[in-house]
Amino acid sequence: MKKQNKSQELGLNLILQELKENPYRKFNLAFSLMVIMPFLVFLYILVNRLFSFNILIGNIGAILLLSLFISVCGFFIGVTILKNILNKIIAYAAQAKHSDQLKSTFVATVSHELKNPLTSIKTNIYNIFAGFTGQINAEQKSVLELCNSTVERMTRLVNDLLDLHKIEAGMVDVRRKACNLAQVAEKQINELLTLADKKSIRIVRDFSDTALCIWADEDKLARVMNNLLSNAIKFTPDAGTVTIKIYPVDKFARIECIDTGYGITADNLSRLFNKFERLDTVKEGTGLGLAISKDIAEMHRGKILVESEVGKGSKFILLLPRDLRIKKR
Amino acid sequence: MENHPAKRILIVEDENELLLGLSTLLKAQGYLTIAASDALFGISLTHKEKPDLIILDLGLPAGGGFHVLENIKSSTITKGIPVLILTAQQGVDLEEKLRFMGAVGYVRKPFEPELLLSQIRDILNK
């Protein structure tokens, strides 16, 4: 353990605290017993005069002594190797433990240090815009609107970064319950209706089974649907159509989000789910939405597929197992 | 500006810029505001002023928001005062924990000012 750095030592201390005992102590005890037992047997032979020096003379004696030497060497080499392995395992676990602690601290710090100033800016912009601090003219209002939209974008980025970090660090709990897919979709459609109306986009619901339920985390599922739907609306020209289809396929539920938008080139398709990847045609968004959606789908042992044709539109398919309680791994 | 009876709201928040923003926002709605920027001062003002509502941040110096909430809810004099939590903290069980401790609501930062105002109206009209 001498070569460990400080962070590993910190992690090791945490592990020892959790174990409430030192694993090395047990390890040493086990090996001491292994040495003591043959020693006691040897002592018993000597005391009872069962041992004769005659057996050590000649070829047989040489073989016996050599085997004894090899056994003793083997024993010590074995102890050293096993101790090294144990050291490495504990050092690795200690590092992982400390790294988890750092990740949690990072999330808490980012939450506090970025979200608090954003809240201050947002509230104060609102106060000035609403005229609570005195009347302002139209030009000043439009500048404030610009500031507010920047704050909104930063807020989205901070939230997306935190969500992605938490998912990838395994810090997110999936709270599964029976979710009615049509109801979750309907809620998201209602949230995005204003955005769709602004572009005169028609949203078509094609729910073959309105009672279709899956065992999933409703909030996270809603986030994926919201992401797919808002993307579809954003990348569809005015007066287009966005269709959301929900139907069962064997043990899966299939949710399709189909738009009559610009479509995605083959080159862009391969980069679509990469983090911070914004396609050439895209000017807004954090570039994290689809990466987060993919992670959420995978957390539910599902996946997201995409089919697209430039100039005709895209189809995003979310495939999720209907009941994870049946298929335990 | 809406015509409210002059309800008194205590804001316990350590970010001065946000404290100023919240005070301005609430005063514009006709509320009277009292401000505290740490946990101990928050507890002391709660006992002294007995406000109609407390808006409480969790990440506070001198004790933290949980301590303030616990103190307010364990005192027979102050336990009836509704406490609305305003925090950047997130957690799977955070909202449940806060409700269990007696908080009347939970708003995550950054919040929409209109949403906060509507929550405040709902709480004070109960």
In short:
With 329 residues, chain A is α+β, with helices and mostly antiparallel strands. Chain A is 59% helix and 14% strand.
Fold topology:
The complex is a heterodimer of chains A (329) and B (126).
Chain A: H1 6-19, H2 23-47, H3 58-129, H4 138-168, E1 177-180, H5 181-198, E2 202-207, E3 213-216, H6 218-234, E4 241-249, E5 252-259, H7 266-271, H8 289-299, E6 303-309, E7 313-321
Parallel strand pairs in A: 2-4
Antiparallel strand pairs in A: 1-3, 4-5, 5-7, 6-7
Helix pairs in contact in A: 1-3, 3-4, 4-8, 5-6, 6-8
Chain B: E1 8-12, H1 16-28, E2 32-36, H2 39-49, E3 53-56, H3 65-74, E4 83-87, H4 94-101, E5 105-108, H5 113-125
Parallel strand pairs in B: 1-2, 1-3, 3-4, 4-5
Helix pairs in contact in B: 2-3
Description:
The complex is a heterodimer of chains A (329) and B (126). Chain A is 59% helix and 14% strand. Chain A has a five-stranded mixed β-sheet with strand order 2-4-5-7-6, covered by helices on one side. Chain A is of the alpha+beta class. The longest helix of chain A has 72 residues, at 58-129. With 126 residues, chain B is an alpha/beta fold. Chain B has one domain (8-125): Response regulator (Rossmann fold). Chain B is built from five helices and five strands; from the N terminus they run βαβαβαβαβα. Chain B starts with 7 loop residues before the first strand and ends with a helix. The A-B interface holds A 108, 111-112, 115-124, 126-127, 130, 132-133, 151, 155, 162, 173, 175 and B 15, 17-18, 20-22, 24-25, 27-28, 59, 88-90, 92, 109-111, 113.
